[in-house]
Amino acid sequence: MLLPTHHALKRFSTSSIRRLLTIQQCPLWEDFAIVFERDPAARNGLEVLCCYPGLHAIAAYRLAHWLHQQRVPFVPRFISHLARGLTGIEIHPGAQLGVGVFIDHGMGIVIGETAIVGDYALLYQGVTLGGTGKETGQRHPTVGSQVVIGAGAKVLGNIHIGDHARIGAGSVVLHDVPINCTAVGVPSRNVCECNTATTPLEHAHLPDIEADTLQRLLARIEQLEGQLNSLKNMTHLSLRAPLAQSAMPTTALSIALSTALSTALSTGLSTTLSTALSTTLPTTLPTMEYQSYG
């Protein structure tokens, strides 16, 4: 058996696939064409048709979803089950996928019954668009257009992911994400703006919110330590001045008392002691008060 040559594969190009699908506006055509825009490893149309499980899963979903809309029992779920076994991607027939949705690698992706995925969204392996609890009605996420959801991200509950948003790999999203916003973390936090329209594959530009938070905390601690050291120095200086001033009245009082006592002893008269005290202390005490409170 002869293998197809490179030239033969090249002739089986996108134009051949386009004629095979017959209608350019068909969602399957958009699903096929978007692969060449989003995956630099895509070489030719035959390779994409045969070797891309994301495209296979979406093609099976398109059929199952049409049958689900026609209220055909059992068959849509069985098609979804077969596609899950062949591709590792589970898409409920009741989900609503826009045109040009690209599932890269795809293993482990789960898209729930009431999930809505906008046009030209990009999903990587391990993504879950799931519900929470057993509530009925709309219980799965609504994902806008041009959204990029990184590998292993979990988007849970009836929440809305705005157009051109980006979900970091491994994030757990439990709340709405605004338009042009990046959500990262467990649970996720909306941290910055992004532009998935022009650079959908620039995953290296996701912020490290834990490192940024630690750096801000360290800077704040250093600032507080500096303020504390300044207060300590000011307190030390303010305490030294009153102590030096309080020592002065004690010395003046001792000098006054010793002078009065020596005068009394020299005369031997008690009246002299009282006279000395009455004349010496009044001149000393005002000075003490001034030095203590001045």
Automatic annotation (TrEMBL):
Q: Which reaction is catalysed here?
A: L-serine + acetyl-CoA = O-acetyl-L-serine + CoA
Under Gene Ontology molecular function, one entry of this record is: serine O-acetyltransferase activity
The metabolic or biological pathway listed in the UniProt record of this protein is: Amino-acid biosynthesis; L-cysteine biosynthesis; L-cysteine from L-serine: step 1/2
* GO term, biological process aspect, one: cysteine biosynthetic process from serine
One Gene Ontology cellular component: cytoplasm
Q: Keywords of this protein's UniProt record, alphabetized?
A: Acyltransferase, Amino-acid biosynthesis, Cysteine biosynthesis, Cytoplasm, Repeat, Transferase
Q: Where in the cell is it found?
A: Cytoplasm
**UniProt keyword DNA damage, yes or no:** no
Q: Which InterPro entries match?
A: Hexapep, Hexapep_transf_CS, LbH_SAT, Ser_AcTrfase_N_sf, Ser_O-AcTrfase, Serine_acetyltransferase, Trimer_LpxA-like_sf
| Annotated PROSITE patterns | HEXAPEP_TRANSFERASES
Q: What is its EC number?
A: 2.3.1.30
One Pfam annotation reads Hexapep
Gene3D superfamilies reported for this sequence: Hexapeptide repeat proteins, serine acetyltransferase, domain 1
Q: What is its main location?
A: cytoplasm
Q: Which family does it belong to?
A: Belongs to the transferase hexapeptide repeat family.
Q: What is this protein called?
A: Serine acetyltransferase
Q: The organism's lineage?
A: Bacteria, Bacillati, Cyanobacteriota, Cyanophyceae, Leptolyngbyales
